[in-house]
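Shape matters. As here.
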Amino acid sequence: MCSEISNTRTAKWSTYAIAFVITVAIFATALYASNYFQNRRMAEIRETQENISIDILSLETQFDLLTQRSCEDVTESTILPSELRTLAERLSYMESQRTTPRDDLLRLKRFYSLLQIKDILLMKEITAKCGLKAVTILYFYSNEENECKDCEKQGYVLTDLGEEYPQLRVYSFDYHMDVSALQTLISIHGVKPELPALVVQSKVHYGYKNQEEVLDILPKMEKLDSALAD
């Protein structure tokens, strides 16, 4: 009788041990997979940053050359290459997941904000030089909890418009990002912390705007539509 009880207890402990080992193995595998894919995403973002830096440097050099050459090779799509939009999408995803170390994410966002501001300045210079017809929106948002319930929805609207209209250039900024150049940009346009906020031709528009409302405040829409028709 005692032997049967002992065997039963041994079997139970063996079952518990096996279950424990399996649980630990599953947890370790999941943790490893999570870290692996997170690190891979970070590596992809850093690679995109490097590509963007090269593009920005190339554009600066190109503008210097414009003083000696015509503007035939410069178009509205020359600046803000696809890598910049790709980086924005990846940063947005990482923010929504809330799994990236905060310091790493902030560093990437600061870098992205500076690249956008640099692109804005380059676009103004080349527009003046070559007479391009790009339309620009500065979009200010916040990720602070309960501060801007419509910011995510506004971002989707602007993304859709940017894909639909090739001349439309949307620059997105975290209003509270601690970057001196960004805060200077906010000060220049007098943007208040009433988010979401859109700046079009130096005029600030507060509150959520659907696609039709955004189109109403954009200039040159006939020219944009004509460009698409061509």
In short: Strands lie at 135-141, 168-174, 197-200, 203-206. The chain has a mean pLDDT of 77.
